[in-house]
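quick one, two chains, predict together pls
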Amino acid sequence: MTASLGGLFLDAMVWSEWGFLIYLFILSSLYFFLVMVGLVEMLRHRATGGRVEDSGALNSSLLVPPVSVLAPAYNEAVTIRESVKALLALSYPEHEVIVINDGSTDQTLQLLIEEFHLYRSARYSGEGLKTKPVRAIYESMDPIRLIVVDKENGGKADALNAGINAAKYPLICSVDADSLLEQDALIRIARRFLLDPERVLAVGGIVRIANGCATASGRVIDVNLPRSWLARFQVVEYLRSFLFGRTGWHLLGGTLIVSGAFAIFHRATALETEIYFGRVGMRVVGAALARLPAGDGHIALPHLAEDFLDVFLGVENLLHPKVEYQHRAALHRFAAMMEAPESPRQARGWALRQTAINCASSTAV
Amino acid sequence: VFLLVAGLIAGKHVQNRRARIHAQRRSTLEDLLSRQDKFEAALDAADRWPGEFLELAQDAFLLLQGAERKRVETVLRGSRLYARLLKDACLADPIRAARAVRVLGELDGEECRGAVQAALAHVSPQVRFAARRATLANGPVEEKLKVLCSLSPLALWERIVLFHSIPADSPAVPRFLGEAFQRGEEPLALIALELLYSIRRLVPVTIPSELARADNSEVRIRFFKALPYCATGRDLALILREGMRDADWRVRAMAAEACASLRPEGVADDLMAMCQSFTNAAEAAHAARALSALGGAARRRLQSLATSGSAATRQIAAEVIEKQLLETAGVQS
């Protein structure tokens, strides 16, 4: 009896081993396929993509829609000044930087007030999205477009919602206050909107790890590998998931999610879809947009518009809940596809699309 | 994963090595091209390292003027690369063809112009774009006009880049604007208005005021954006008042913005109405800024809005007044 039970257990172990092997084989094959597709797309883009002069022309044109850059900050006293200076120095015809101080308990707000000569302004902040109470809005007395929204702590999503309310431009770009953007990242990411304003609802950037890179004044000046082997593994994982994986999915028309560390979308769409909700924050962008019926809009990834993120090397970072949100986004899109063509949600989707079209029409209002 | 990491390190090493060699060759070429007595050596180096020389020539055409640029042109024409570029411009490969067209577009001469013109009908959109750009930058006026008339199907960013290529004093600009407005076709008028707004200079043409009532709201929006840069046949205040009563809030906002630039008389009532009743805060903000820009009695009326019953109107008025006061203080200090 014991021997037969032992035999059964061994058989089960062997079968489960085969199961794991087959699962790993399928998963690795899928990853490999995506990497190859992404690689081909990247090489094609590199050969045919925009040139420096194109960015120069776009930078000096007022036909390019203005962007409000939202940077939520919670206890970022160490890096906030450099980050804000880098955001203000981004190449773009017209952009405003909105830092949302999400109830920081350190010197974040004080440092901003002193560094950028902020005064408590009478700026009108729309009441589109519900947020925790806003204590004050500050603007700079210097000729720079910097707005600081000081509010009670409510989490990243809440901070971004407050930023969306305070924003005045038709496009919204969300960035992490501690991430480093390339000088022309904004113009490159916005170019996608100008390419296909009728369909593009949101555009995501490529996130890379800044550990090991040489930085100065909030800019990456030399890209290098980190010294730690754990960090190097993470570099490979980010390259796989962001640079090749997402590019591959984009080519297959399957982009469901954009990175919250660097994403751009229409303000009107954000207001309509309540793009950020709860405390989960930015990664649900795809989920919110995936509520739209299939074919109504798409999310694009501009290649090479890079955002360097200084990644904290901890276990929690390796196990971040991105996958869960991707699944949620996929489910939302699937649910939308399954709905009857004349359903109210589809009608709302069309209305949203129209809003997006209106906003994307390069109208700087 | 180990293999990937190892591959990454090896790749980076090879890349660094290649970058060093490339920089060294480029530096040698730069040295030779900067010295007048080294023409033969420069020619020889250009033939030996065509890739680096082509890259250098492209940068030189972008940055240099006068004798220095001429020297690079002479070396390019004398090198084997020139014949290859003429051949490449007709190739089906879009990458090589577009690159050849970009370089040839910078050069004068029938041969180069012929290659660029032929590329306007290339199957690849990338090559056609490069040819359009080269034509608008250096081509004859008639060709420029043809290219400008064919811009409607292009993406907005492509149109912006192409507008940027046209020299500011080109006679093609007023001619195209005149023709486009005269023909009365909406897609062409839209391109003309975009061009006018892009160059942001006063142009001696008259915009037909009928465009303020065009079916396409994009045309109406761009009409009011471009209005400060040329004349209209009708009373300006009348056109602006019509714009401020448009069904689309974006058109109303742009009409208000045009009021701030043109400061016509008799629009304050409409601006006040916009501030008090709006569908989007942006239109109220534009109207409030226009009232502030008009000055005098209009500014006093804006101040009265700071005590309005509507919280949004009050806040918008307060914001604009605050900005105006800060600007005045800035000018005084």
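The longest helix of chain B spans residues 2-33.
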